[in-house]
Amino acid sequence: MRRLAYLLLPLLAGCATRSADVAMVVPPVAPAPAPIAPPLPAGATPGMRVPVALADGSFPTPNQHLSAAATLWHLRAGLNVAALACPGVQGATIIASYNALLRQEKAALAAAEASYAAEFRQGGGDWRDRYDDSMTRLYNFFSQTPARNGLCAAAERTLAMLSTAPAGTVATAASVQLAAIDQPFVEFYRAYDSWRTGAMAGVPPVVIAAAAPPVVVASRPQLAQQGTLQPVAARPVPGATPAREAAVLVSGPARAPAVRSIPVAATGAMAVAVPQRPRPRPRLELDPSVFEIAVPPTR
Asked: Is 271:224 a contact under the CB 8 Å cutoff?
């Protein structure tokens, strides 16, 4: 009895229920999004001559490292361009405020212009040409179209502030206000430089898969003319007996021998015909009597 119990223990253990294995589903890891290239700034065109950022991240402009007289005169030049270029109601407001500034700060502006010209005169030579060239570059700087909207907005704010300042204090505020109307051009330079140097940084190149080569049906394929499928010349199908391929005899009216044709194999938009290879063909000798119709005897 005890021995029987020992024999039944493995069987009972096998009948015991087992806990079902639970599969752990690991969610797929989402790929990191590709970096978005900065857009080309509004009004900019590829290939524009835009200064490269300096080591400190700033951009060189004609309004940096100036004397007090040059700072005030550059401010007047920027406001002059805004009065000439800004359109609409905003432009009319700028014109009125600019003319009022010229009347209110006439003496300060005249002194600044004379002192600024003296800086060029001290360099000797044809200083007037150098002065005129410098002013031409300054006006061209303030006339850059991509920063026009920013210049107009900054000039309107600057003139509104200067209109409330006491007369004779424009020179004191010139440094801050010149930086204000210079800022739109710095922002444009930064945006363009970001597009120019970092537009495609980290963006994987687009790889265009090469077209798969056409399937070669035969070692020497022949293209079908005008894209139509042309049957290959009749020949026995490999593996079939000549008698079955040549003719089918039926009782009744005689029928012409039926010959199977192999159509041209087509791949995509190109049809390829299997070339003919000279090979011996069996000669079929048929009894002409098999094609005669049996006429029943007359009674």
From this structure: yes
Q: Are 180 and 63 in contact (CB under 8 A)?
A: no
* Per-block mean pLDDT, blocks of 10 residues, the chain (299 long): 61 60 71 72 87 91 97 98 97 97 96 97 93 97 96 98 91 96 96 80 49 52 46 46 42 49 48 58 54 50
Residue 97 carries which DSSP code? H
Residue 69: which H helix or E strand, with range? helix 68-85
DSSP reduced 3-state for 260? coil
Task: Give the C-alpha distances (Å, rounded to integers) separating 243 from 39, 67, 119, 252, 289.
Answer: 76, 111, 114, 19, 17
Contacts of residue 96, Cβ cutoff 8 Å, sequence gap at least 6: none
Element (H, E) at 278: none
Torsion angle, alpha carbons of 143, 147, 153, 157, to 10? -70
pTM above 0.85, yes or no: no
Are the beta carbons of 244 and 260 closer than 8 angstroms? Answer: no
> Which region holds residue 156: left if phi is over 0, alpha if psi is between -120 and 50, else beta?
alpha
CA distance 241 to 255: 19
Helix (H, G, I), strand (E, B) or coil at 273: strand
Residues comprising the chain, all counted = 299
N-to-C CA span, the chain: 101
How far apart CA 73 and CA 63 sit, in angstroms, is 10
Nearest to 75 by CA among 160, 184, 170: 170
DSSP state letters, 109-156: HHHHHHHHHHHHHTT-SSHHHHHHHHHHHHHHHHT-GGGHHHHHHHHH
SS3 224: coil
